[in-house]
Amino acid sequence: MSILPDFEAAQNLFQKYHIDVPRGTFEKLEIYADFLVDYNQHVNLTAITDGKEILTKHFLDSFLLYAHAEKYFPAAAEILDIGSGAGFPGVPLALLKPDFQITLLDSLNKRITFLELLKEKLQCSYTPVHGRAEELAKTSQYREAFDIVTARAVAALPMLAEFSLPYVRTGGFWIAMKGKEEIQPAVRAIQILGGKLENTISYQLPDGDERTIYIIKKISPTPTKYPRKFAQIKQKQL
Predict the structure, then answer these.
(1) Would strands 168-178 and 146-152 be described as parallel, antiparallel, or unpaired?
(2) Which comes out higher in pLDDT, residue 179 or 110?
(3) What is the Cα Rg of the chain in Å?
């Protein structure tokens, strides 16, 4: 038996947010949750190990990114998830929308190993990549190559902007998933990096936790000197 609540309970939860998760997809979420909790005993991937919390704070929260921002995602979108960790929101998005081409980027190889093993278990299409965001953004393979770049928490918004916007092609979107963090300190950085705040979407999870999605449109190419080296980014924000 999975640690997740049963399908009917999960379906009732998802439907409250107008999200349709077929039984086959839910069965993969069960595999995901069980493998995550088991693997987490040996490698620290998440502080959330209760089945109900995994369902709401990981899976539902990831699905809500798409549910709230669907109009910004083109068909067969090329998506980069920065600092993917245990795979959120990238892997749930890959399960929900199999046509998406999703790359999961993380700087810790132990997380990439988990994501590769998970991919085999789920028979799901996504590409785990080991590397540092500020370094890979300098390469021609990844720079300004994605329709959508997502990031959940990871870093403060001014720093996260410099990690993320260089990967977004002009006309695409950087979508940042945050708690109650204000966008204002990052506005100048966003402008310098070629972005413009398009929309702000606020919502609550079932337990009352507040979430904010910032949608930033890429309106011009990022200057080639960005992103800077990590020490420079950390020392002085744009």
Answers:
(1) parallel
(2) 110
(3) 17
